[in-house]
Amino acid sequence: MSGPDDTSGVATAGDPVDPEGHYLELLEDEAAAEEIGSEVGSAPPRSQWQLFRRRFVRHKLAMFGLVVLIILCLAIFFASLWVPHSPTDQDILAGAQAPNGDHWFGTDNNGRDYFARVIFAGQISLKIGLAVALISTLVGTVSGALAGFFGKWVDQLLMRVTDLFLIVPGIAVLAVGLKFATSDQNPVGRFVRGEGSEPRFGTDSIIIIVLAMLGWMSIARVVRGQILSIKEKEFVEAARAVGASNFRIITRHLLPNCIGPIVVNATLAIAVAIVAESTLSFFGFGVQIPETSWGQMLDDAKANIYFDEHLLYFPGLFILLTVLCVNFVGDGLRDAFDPQSRR
């Protein structure tokens, strides 16, 4: 039984407090205590950025994925500086060759260096993945924040629109939309194709728009849930009390507290977009010649799968490696933003 002077269960004025007024939990092990900024000893408290960076660096698979992605992006987007062959030079008489010392990935049916084609095709695939993730994240964040903050009819309207997009069969709509946008039999297709010999928009730009319009819903629902959970907190009420506008409350107080889920979902959206584009291109609805992506290379290679299997392996391996590393980074970001993480 505790004596009259026992204050083990009572917070005192000298106890450390976090930004929301909760008393920091005294953890049993010294490593965990160091991670929340109250290490036993005289070390100063760590900032939120330092805690995030520390947790992320401890995630070995995330660090591996990040390093591989950085190397891959640099190699692909600066390919013209170091790739020994041009992806368009042809030697039709030579035909398809297996990997050798001169052509590291062999050549395709037109005698083009396959290593150069895979590297340059990655520019389109990564461009689509990054652009789709950016656009879908912006649309989803804005719609989710408005729905969660204003509630009532705004929430009902935006969430019903979100539900409508969620039940749409994605691949089918993408295929039909791409065919519609590239046909000269309708006003939209004629606008996209333009009047000259060069189309006004490439197929990669159309794919980015269509994928982004069908990929924002999950981020919107996540942001809405986060906003609903924190909009009644004391710091939001304090902002209202001093006369802060709704725009300022959303952008300066609410969205910064949702940055973790937003970043994680944006990272994973890159992988989803790359896989979706590859799927569309494999079925002939995606990137079209003269543009080339990894999915379009798979579509070209499927006719020779039993004779020149290397044409199928290399773009497939690059898709697998990229998506796997993006998922590793996403898992690392999720754990780093999680205050309960003990990595």
Layout of helices and strands, plus pairs?
Layout: H1 30-35, H2 48-58, H3 60-77, H4 114-150, H5 152-166, H6 170-182, H7 187-193, H8 203-213, H9 217-230, H10 234-241, H11 246-254, H12 259-282, H13 294-301, H14 310-337
Helix pairs in contact: 2-14, 3-4, 3-14, 4-5, 4-8, 4-9, 4-12, 4-14, 6-8, 9-12, 10-11, 12-13, 12-14, 13-14
Summarize the structure.
By secondary structure, this protein is mostly helical.
Q: Which key terms come to mind for this protein?
A:
343 residues, single chain, 14 helices, MetI-like fold, disordered N terminus, globular, mainly alpha
Give a description of the structure:
The chain is 61% helix and 0% strand. By secondary structure, the protein is mainly alpha-helical. It has a single domain (54-91, 103-337), classed as MetI-like (MetI-like fold). Helix 3 packs across helix 4, helix 9 (217-230) packs antiparallel against helix 12 and helix 13 (294-301) runs antiparallel to helix 14 (310-337). The chain starts with 29 loop residues before the first helix and ends in a 6-residue tail after the last helix. The model is unreliable at 1-42 (pLDDT under 50).
